[in-house]
Amino acid sequence: MYTTELKDKNQAPQSAAVVEDPARLEAFEARVAADDFIEPKDWMPEAYRKTLVRQISQHAHSEIVGMLPEGNWITRAPNLRRKAILLAKVQDEGGHGLYLYAAAETLGTSREEMIDALHSGRAKYSTIFNYPTLTWADIGAIGWLVDGAAIMNQVPLQRTSYGPYARAMVRICKEESFHQRQGYEIMTALAAGTDAQKRMAQDALNRWWWPSIMMFGPPDENSPNTAQSIRWRIKRETNDELRQKFIDVTVPQAEAIGLTVPDPDLTWNEARGSYDYGAIDWDEFYAVVRGEGPVAKERMQARVKAWEEGAWVREAAAAHAAKHQAREAAE
Amino acid sequence: MTKNWPLWEVFIRAKNGLSHRHAGSVHAADAKMALEAARDTYTRRMEGVSLWVVPSAAIVASDPGDAAELFEPAADKVYRHPTFYVIPEGVKNI
Ligand SMILES: [Fe+2]
Ligand SMILES: [Fe+2]
Known about the structure:
The complex is a heterodimer.
Chain A lengths: L21 H12 L12 H20 L1 H5 L8 H26 L5 H9 L16 H22 L5 H29 L3 H20 L11 H6 L7 H18 L10 E3 L4 E3 L5 H11 L3 H14 L1 H20 L1
Antiparallel strand pairs in A: 1-2
Chain B lengths: L6 E7 L6 E8 L3 H12 L7 E6 L11 H5 L23
């Protein structure tokens, strides 16, 4: 999701504008190639730093914006058990955003800059969160598919070359698998329910399937920076590799609960040991990246509103801290 | 817009008998708030029994550029390790 570079299609790929000291660059490349971790105070090429700041902050924004489609179902969860679970999941996503913002800050950016970039629309976040959550089954589909795709993406990132990012991913991965299971449990219950409930589950799968497999980002031939990111061990697998893995594990999960993946071209390829799948509508993907997702505006409005309405709390806390500091200094 | 709250480093003692270990960082206006934020951010699953929060600005760190002079001198002092010594065959409990 999260780890692919979300840029508008026409944006130029990153260029090595800064000329780096060749000796340092060579030493750096050798360390990374040997799977050594890079830590905040270590020398690193500017392009490595920039790529990381962009990727980690996009990832953080995705966690934070990802709270919105689920948060609006907390009060409507069908029972107390589901409500407590959803509340815990949404709280986890907030935590994930915080771990990641903190990791990005070690690269020299500030929390304010990142939040400002998000709120002003300069920063990207995962396309998936610009789709609406229409029914309770959507909460099941999100946990199962969206968190499932996130796990597929995040597991290899536990070995990403930048230490603080890798450590944040270890924490996140530990928490993520309950997210997927609770979603799948919701889908399982609905799929085993009344006809109307089963239809609801199938409808959610129909709407979330394609956006979920788009989360892995553009096809490899269209992601010019992937090779560099893999060489620097920022990414460990390509978009298409991860997408294929996700499809291969998810299709049997759908079958197990009697749901049908909405792809008529989906067939098991014995020779490859993988599923072949139908063409992805990349025009839709790029439109969502450009900010034309069905609920993109609502998401940012909700986010900015929450931030602005919390301003007095932040101001009060700062005033309180200043008052206490002054008092202590006077003593 | 209010200025960024200061950054705090969070350390967690997983259980008594173990030392506190760095977990991550939080922004908070003061120490009390830093503890509360650390609790909510880093211990939602019984990760610890005790928390430390330390203003990040108070940490003095060594420079990676000095790593060679700081740590490499130890590399040629292999006699500091028990495996350096030759013990006659058959001798036990040493
Ligand atoms: Fe997450
Ligand atoms: Fe999650």
